[in-house]
Amino acid sequence: MRWIVFAFCLTCLLTDARAQDRSAVEGQFQIWLQETVWPRAKAKGVSRLTMQRAFEGVTLNWKLPDLVPPGSIAKTPQQQKQAEFGAPGRYFNANSIQGATAVGRQMARRHANFLAQVEAETGVPGRIILAIWGRESGYGQVAIRHDAFQVLGTKGFMSTRSAYFTEELIAALQIAQAGHAPPGRLKSSWAGALGQPQFMPSNVLTYAVDGNRDGRLDVWRSAEDTIASIGNFLSAYGWVAGRDWGFEVSVPAHVSCALEGPDQGRPIQDWVDMGVTRVSGKPFPKHELQGEGYLMMPAGRYGPAFIVTPNFYVLKDYNKSDLYALFVGHIGDRIQFGVQDFNTGWHNIGTLYRSDIAAMQKSLESRGHDVGGVDGLPGYKTRRSIGRWQEGKGQPPTCFPKQGMKAALTQ
């Protein structure tokens, strides 16, 4: 009985200590707001009243990912925090695809004239704008629940990217000062993204467009402003009018998956000469053949393969994930052309912790491979490094991390 009482008391003491620690950090947060954020916001034209209203009642959100409280050390997270970086096949679940396609077709009919106008002005196809709109906010139907100033304040004060989020916090205060957002608390995603396009605040200030000409940059309530803003963003990042985003292809065994990446591009005609063909059986459009194309295999040999164009990497400027860009291109094609699922299915490749992939990356780096950084995320540099390592061992390259590979790499 005495041991139970002792354990209970110890738990109480630890809980009380954590509460005191957090209370101290909350105090540091308030000092940071006044001594660091306020002077910078004031210099950008933000009033004291706007600052006070933004942070009235705001405390740190300790549930956000990638936090580094004062005095602690950042660690590589064990589990995936975003779907973009999980097993590739899970990103393309039937419900998400069918929902985005069905509603996207409705929106294509409803906004046909305005989409055509934006496409004429920016060169960005309406189907691509619709697919991004659908993915980001369900065409404006998904509830956005987080307090933007709590999220950005927390991540600006104590996250692995504090400088970046502090800049975004200042931008959010500028948005509030200008009165662009609806009245009330400014809402965001858990990462601080705003409105139907899910722009970070600095992107709202830079790329938001008054599509309906009502004098406001209202990407929260206006479909026209949302459509025009997405088109403006992609155009500003270099969307090439007249080119597609990419094509699903069949890659013969003699063409290595280690040829993947935007730094290994070649004219699409060269890929054709190597034996790469479209899975549809159709030839590549003639106007694409002399344009540069890039091999993209998001699951290595365990899923569909693509020849993508520079426009694919413009989509990645919207969201850094290969899978996000692929989802957007695919949904856009389904909306306009009625294409079905990818010809090649996604294999069950199992689940790895990010720490497992990070260990593989570290080992590959020690062997001289450029994996793009030890971050636990299997990007194209990690995928092709795995393929090159496999080729060096005389194995057929598969270019994707799997269970069992960690032991072979780290032994």
From TrEMBL:
One of the record's GO molecular function terms: peptidoglycan lytic transglycosylase activity
Biological process according to GO: peptidoglycan catabolic process
Source taxon at top rank: Bacteria
Ranges where the Transglycosylase SLT domain occurs: 29-333
Entry-linked Gene3D superfamilies: 1.10.530.10, Bacterial muramidase
UniProt xrefs under Pfam families: SLT_2
Alphabetical list of InterPro entries matching this protein: Lysozyme-like_dom_sf (IPR023346), MltB-like (IPR043426), MltB_2 (IPR011970), PGBD-like_sf (IPR036365), SLT_2 (IPR031304)
NCBIfam families in alphabetical order: MltB_2
Name of the protein described by the UniProt record: Transglycosylase SLT domain-containing protein
Species of origin: Ruegeria profundi
